[in-house]
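Aim 2 progress update. The chain analyzed this quarter is reproduced below.
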Amino acid sequence: MPSPAPPPDDTPRAPHATSAPPVRALLRRYRHAGEPLSCEPVAQGLLNRGYRLATTRGSYFLKHHLDGDHQAITRQHGATQRLQRLGVPVAPPVETDDGDTVTVIGGRCYALHPWVDGRHRGGAQLTTAASERLGGLLGLVHICLEQVMGPDPAALPYDSPDPADTFALIDELLAQARGRTPRSTFDDLAEHRLTERRGLLERHAHRRPPPGAEPATGWVHGDFHPLNLLYRGAEPAAIIDWDRLGVQPRAEEAVRAAAIFFVRPTGELELTKVRAYARAYRRAAGADATELAAAVHRVWWERLNDFWILRWRYQLDDRRADPLFAAVSALAVWWTREYEAVCEAFAG
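Predicted structure tokens:
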């Protein structure tokens, strides 16, 4: 399942060392949660560590926030508490005995959430009707965030990736891929895609979105994709992992999410589902076709210039995202070839 790329200004980070969470010390802050019975790691994420914690009072999701930004975590928690009151499916944190939602032990930040029984569903598992409901849900999130996060933020200045910087990065990554000993099929694919992408950028450099434009911005989830949405049956049960809650162009989140939910392993988008999703999003969020078309162009350009998976592999020796590369790299090529069809699906 393709995962979202980090924002364009994200700098790759080395993998964090793992260590067992201090369960007993933590539960002393949550005496109402009971005594610990077991604590098992769940599927490892790219940004945080998660555990299924069973106690004498029930099951919980224990989250270790690796970045440890107490203020940002508290803001995320407050947002989900208010969103729940508006009917958005979320899983706000459990409060400590003192009414806090963040517990700091040994300089590390932890939060306890109710365990949500559900499953992740990618676009291939969604019907067209379910895809429409997904678009409506994201539109609801954006409208409700506007209510719970205060006045609309000021528009952000926009500066698109410079192909000159991308060409330099391609040369660096090519040298690293070609220098691997022994070489693997991944290295061969990386070399092919890097060379291919350079040619695409040379042909399409004149289509770079002009810097200085100010897209319509607002508060967004920041990481809306299948692994951050739990379903119970056919209905969404909880939107989780609000670590990237922030101010961004809202329509861009809608486009990025669709490019993750509805991409096939070979890199094509399921445009019938995209169309249903986008129309529902536009209705729910009050976004017009022009806004979505502009977002499609900006995200397309971002994808053409983005190599975060290869940066992780070759610059950090971090291979956790390697399985995503085939579909993500193929999508950039397919999207360029089918640009008009993709725009029509989102804005038609």
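The first strand starts at residue 36 and ends at 41. Residues 128-148 form the longest helix (21 residues). These observations will guide the mutagenesis experiments scheduled for the next reporting period.
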